[in-house]
Design goal:
By secondary structure, this protein is α/β, with parallel strands linked by helices. It contains 7 helices and 7 strands. The strands form 2 sheets. It has a 5-stranded mixed beta sheet with strand order 5-4-3-6-7, with helices on both faces. The chain has a two-stranded parallel ribbon with strand order 1-2. A hairpin with a 6-residue loop joins strand 3 and strand 4.
């Protein structure tokens, strides 16, 4: 790891992302032309943030002629749980949607996927868990997942790991996929629910 910069800024990602990337390259003493690949999270998450991150990463990769490798937010937060804490547990990665449901995915203690990423409410998460126990939840929606499952009569434990995805783990996961990414298409956003904003019936065209 040559340089690392992470900020939880809420709004304004588009204004700070490129300067942050430039600062990280300078801190690492690396020219963009020396990069082998660009790694980026592709969701699930906030629609605007996902599109800003993906557009920037894909633009970098296209201009440099290198692969752009996408990883999901859910697998990144799951990877943040230490091996010791994961032992003997099923990992419930839970990411906030800021709606009635949350984004979740199940992993075993070795971080193999046990389910696909889904947007789910309490009953749906309970069904997803099935007989998998004990459960360790991680992510910025872990507390809400615990509340949802408590209403279903299921108790889970909250991980001590960071609730937010660690950019260093994004790079770690992507590096393991570098060879397979050479001929892969650029990553697309992982949408698990339709957007709230929709075009009007006339598709935004002015009325005659």
């Amino acid at each position: 790891m040559l340089a690392h910069d992470a900020r939880d800024i809420g709004r304004g990602q588009a204004e700070v992302l490129l300067p942050m990337a430039q600062d990280a390259l300078q801190a690492a003493g690396v020219n963009p032309q020396a990069l082998d690949a660009i790694a980026v999270t592709r969701g699930p998450g906030a629609f605007t943030g996902m599109r800003i991150g993906l557009a920037t990463a894909r633009g970098f990769a296209l201009s440099l002629g290198i692969p752009c490798i996408g990883v999901t937010t859910l697998e990144v937060v799951a990877r943040g749980v230490t091996q010791a804490e994961r032992a003997g547990h099923v990992i419930l990665a839970a990411v906030e949607s800021k709606r009635a449901d949350i984004y979740v995915q199940l992993f075993d203690a070795d971080l193999h996927e046990l389910s696909n990423p889904v947007a789910a409410d309490g009953p749906a998460i309970a069904t997803l868990l099935g007989v998998h126990t004990p459960v360790l939840a991680v992510g910025d929606a872990a507390l809400r997942a615990r509340e949802m499952l408590a209403e279903e009569g299921i108790e889970i434990t909250i991980s001590t790991a960071s609730a937010l995805p660690d950019t260093r783990l994004v790079a770690e996961i992507a590096s393991a996929r570098f060879v397979a990414s050479q001929d892969a298409p650029p990553p697309a956003p992982l949408y698990l629910r339709p957007p709230d904003a929709k075009l009007p019936k006339n598709q935004g065209r002015a009325r005659p």
